[in-house]
Amino acid sequence: MAALDALRARLAELTDLSLLGHLAAWDQRTMMPPDGSPARAHQLSTLQRLSHERATADEVGEWLGELESTGDLTDVDRDLVRLARRDWDRDRRVPIDLAAELAQAGAEGQDVWQAARAADDFSAFAPALRRNIELARAYAACFADEFAGPYDALLADYDFGLTAARIQEVFGRLGEALPPLVAEAVQRPAPAPLQVPVAAQQAAVTSTLARLGVLPDSWRVDVSAHPFSTNMGQRDSRITTRYEDGQLESVLAAMHEFGHSLYERQIAPELARTNLGHGTSMSVHESQSKLWENHVGRNPAFAGVIAGELTAGGFAVEPSTLLAALGRVQPSLIRVSADELTYPLHIVLRFELELALIEGRLDVADLPAAWNDGMRRLLGVEVPSDAHGVLQDVHWAAGAFGYFPSYALGTLIAAQLWEALEAAAGSQDEALAAGDVSAVRRWLADHVHHVGRRLDTEPLVTAATGRGLDVEPFLRHVTHVATR
Amino acid sequence: MAALDALRARLAELTDLSLLGHLAAWDQRTMMPPDGSPARAHQLSTLQRLSHERATADEVGEWLGELESTGDLTDVDRDLVRLARRDWDRDRRVPIDLAAELAQAGAEGQDVWQAARAADDFSAFAPALRRNIELARAYAACFADEFAGPYDALLADYDFGLTAARIQEVFGRLGEALPPLVAEAVQRPAPAPLQVPVAAQQAAVTSTLARLGVLPDSWRVDVSAHPFSTNMGQRDSRITTRYEDGQLESVLAAMHEFGHSLYERQIAPELARTNLGHGTSMSVHESQSKLWENHVGRNPAFAGVIAGELTAGGFAVEPSTLLAALGRVQPSLIRVSADELTYPLHIVLRFELELALIEGRLDVADLPAAWNDGMRRLLGVEVPSDAHGVLQDVHWAAGAFGYFPSYALGTLIAAQLWEALEAAAGSQDEALAAGDVSAVRRWLADHVHHVGRRLDTEPLVTAATGRGLDVEPFLRHVTHVATR
Questions:
Q1: How far from A109 is each of A40, A366, A376, A444, B27, CA to CA, in Å?
Q2: Alpha carbon B78 to chain centroid, angstroms
Q3: CB atoms < 10 A from the CB of B178, how many?
Q4: Cα–chain-centroid distance for residue A100?
Q5: Helix (H, G, I), strand (E, B) or coil at B471
Q6: A122, A377, B290, B397: which could join B109 in a potential S-S bond, CB 3.0 to 4.6 Å?
Q7: Which domains does chain A have, with CATH numbers?
Q8: Each residue of B238-274: b (16+ CB within 10 Å) or e?
Q9: What's the pLDDT tens digit per position in A284-336?
Q10: Mind listing the pLDDT tens digit for each residue in A323-371?
Q11: Annotation marks residue B257 as catalytic
Q12: Taking a C-beta distance cutoff of 8 angstroms, is the pair A156, A143 a contact?
């Protein structure tokens, strides 16, 4: 099996290069002095070019051809070959010049966007956005024979197997069911916002994470402008949070990032250093962060634990006060600060718009008006300026189309997994009240994490819950939140 | 000039990979959770293997052949081609199996050594040392036609162009002149050791480094078990220090590491991302750290500055008291804690012994006795146990022969450069007393740093000082220290 050994060696090499890229990016966001940027950009680009060259080399195709005509593979190796073929085919379909243009346009687009947002001037951003859309369509055209439409081809980079039609179906139900719930929730008196000193937040982050299993032997917790999670190997997880205001975003963001990291840590060790040894998709990844943020962190049963840690950290608070603050519903302009109930509606809007842009049904010039209409329709808010509207997110500026849906899909999958988990392992109320998450970790390991990339999003959800992607568990969850 | 472009692109790539290796090693020593080790070992080994493959590829030889027959190169490009040829030839002469065996024996040797040192049992270490010596001789034999003896071939990895004969000449003078100075110094009453609280040390490290030019825009200062310096690019310098006892090692170690980093930062920017864009040799590198440690940090004119920073940090001390503590001379068993005057004698001994081992004139079984004899002869101390004698250093366990001389050579070159600097730029006493090191930085940039790897050790020393390697400036310096 020389071909299998060669393929596995190449996949191990690519994993190592990818993890070095994780390290370089983590360092850039947490440790690097600012003047290190130009050299770091060179290093990252060299890493990417070398990885691409080694991933798409002719010899990989030869090994795959040989292995595909072999009957004698284990189940894991069959999946390994299947995914390696998929990745190799996709990577090789994109002409090198187009890939370079995409990277450059994405980088330039972010610079242009930053200036345009600061100046609240959509027209300054429009040409860059137009170019990104054209390039995304050119990219999608590389896979024209494989997908029903260009958006599906883009989606495949984030969530292989999902389609625009499937998302329309799911998001249609959200767009219909959520607004009345929001309208009902805002009728209730708003709880007073908390003003938690940073020291108490830090104490609560540290001690809450320790309860979840974040030990210094194999974790780091740092601070960055935007919280994120990464890993340099299965036993080297690094998450960040931020302490910006008196709210408890620090604790919830830390739990969110913990969810991403736990996923990577609990993948079967025998998949490490292969193409199967990481999270399967953006939306499943997001389901893991959302599960810990929404279903553990905001769980009434867990409120006593966080309140206790805050109290021990010097900020005395009642669990019920904390819970009310965490459950506050308020339609607002900005996605990243939206609450649990309104958040998916921000995504529904972005999906509708980017689908129309990519399919050529919406012109860039008409985008701001379409944005503002959608915000009125879905969230009932008036957008006062493009800076607080269509210019708020970096994704389109960076050329990332098809990425947004995973944020809402993850939220839905989280609710669906949580129902399945409690159905199988029993109510977690008692365990959570005692700060014990071991059953949650174990169920996720067995039903979601362990399999790595061997199952794509919807097959994985089906295997874990017995049903395909389903909106109802999330709607039940938020109905409960909105009416408790 | 397609060959030149191709060569420069490859050298840029190799630089990026090497800087990623710096990052991975820095992270491992300062930030990485301990359980990250196995994955990090994979990443480093992949990086090394890929770099070796890309550095020694056939096409590099083709580009070099083409460029060597071109008359039309700039001075820089001629040096670039000359050094690329040297590196390519050296790398390709070592059979891949031997390189792997060297790496493995070095790693295993360190494990064996650690256990043997803990058990104070030289005989447990002897077989590993014997194997390392044999492999080092096999490695040297790859270059047999280019060097007068095997030790010279090993030396070329650290200090290209230096020879055992030249070092014997220099160290012979040291071995003759230093012991009487030491004997004289120890007759004088020993100053009381300082007991400086860690907080005051930290304040002094931070503010002293800031005076030298360590600004957060492009530097980091962290803590590690052994102080070191590294860089991720010319504008991203990272040094570490440690706070282990009540002494001032923390401040001097920080200045030492600053010297290493400043060297890399002040290399001509047009040499960045080429094979010429880093320090030229181990001994010149060590000369830069020693210059800042010995000639600035321990300078009577600078004592008021450090004393002032310590006082501001909460530990009131007179400059004269500080200076006396920093200038204390005391022959001792352990190299890494030796003073300025006795330190080179530790190196003279190691050089004599490793030269004899590599040349086959000394058997491993006779090494402990030879060590103890040498310590008596050179430093007048009795070695009570191998753990405090021949087993104290990791270098031979790791298979590094030819490395030790650079520690003493650097000390000598530092003194020689300092004399030349003050002869050219005038006495620095007044500037140092005011905490102003700008003239020192500038002179070093122009006469040592700027040229990068374009000159080897001794040609560089000659260009900077008008003379080849010379022991007398160091002897004048320590005579002054010993008698002030």
A1: 20, 19, 28, 38, 32
A2: 28
A3: 23
A4: 25
A5: coil
A6: B397
A7: 2-144 (no CATH), 145-484 (1.10.1370.30)
A8: bbbbebeeebbbbbbbbbbbbbbbbbbbbbbeebbbb
A9: 999 999 999 999 999 999 999 999 999 999 999 999 999 999 888 999 999 98
A10: 999 888 999 999 988 999 999 999 999 999 999 999 999 999 999 999 9
A11: yes
A12: yes
Element (H, E) at A239: strand A237-241
- Alpha-carbon gap, residue A106 to A398, rounded angstroms: 4
Options B249, B257, B293, B458, the catalytic residue: B257
A16, A52, A221, A224: best mutation site toward chain B, by most B Cβ within 10 Å? A16
Q: How far is B330 from chain A (nearest CA, A)?
A: 40
- Taking an 8 Å cut-off on Cβ atoms, the answer to whether B235 and A50 are in contact is no
Chain B residues with CB-CB distance to A232 below 8 A: 27, 32, 36, 39-40, 43
Helix (H) or strand (E) holding A229: strand A229-231
A&B contacts, CB < 8 Å: 114
Instruction: Decide if B17 touches A, using CB distance below 8 A.
Output: yes
CA distance A128 to A134: 10
Q: Which residues of B touch A36 (CB under 8 A)?
A: 218, 232-233, 235-236
pTM for the full model?
Answer: 0.94
Torsion, Cα A68 A74 A77 A78, to 10 degrees, reads 50
Q: What percent of chain A has pLDDT over 70?
A: 100
Q: Which residue from A39, A47, A220 is facing B235, i.e. has the nearest CB?
A: A39
% of chain B beyond a pLDDT of 90: 91
Q: CB distance A46–B13 less than 8 Å? A: yes
**Is the Cβ–Cβ distance between A236 and B36 less than 8 Å?**
yes
Catalytic machinery residues of A:
257
Q: Give the pLDDT confidence score for residue B101 in this predicted structure.
A: 92
Question: Which pLDDT tens digit goes with each residue over A375-424?
Answer: 999 999 999 999 999 999 999 999 999 999 999 999 999 999 999 999 99
Contact A218 B43 (CB under 8 A): no
Instruction: Compute how many other C-beta atoms are within 10 angstroms of the C-beta atom of residue A382.
Output: 10
Using CA of residue B333, residue B336, residue B342, residue B347, what is the dihedral sign? positive
Structure tokens at B31: 């930030």
Tell me what ipTM this predicted complex has. Answer: 0.94
Intervals of chain B under pLDDT 70: none
pLDDT band at A447 (very low <50, low <70, confident <90, very high): very high
CA of residue A132 relative to chain centroid, distance: 22
Q: Which of B27, B46, B216 sits opposite A27 (nearest CB)?
A: B27
**pLDDT reading at A69 higher than 90:** yes
Average pLDDT, chain B: 95
Residues of chain B with Cβ-Cβ distance to A233 below 8 Å are 36, 38-40, 42-43
Whether A477 contacts A415, CB under 8 Å: yes
CA–CA separation, B40 and B253 (whole Å): 27
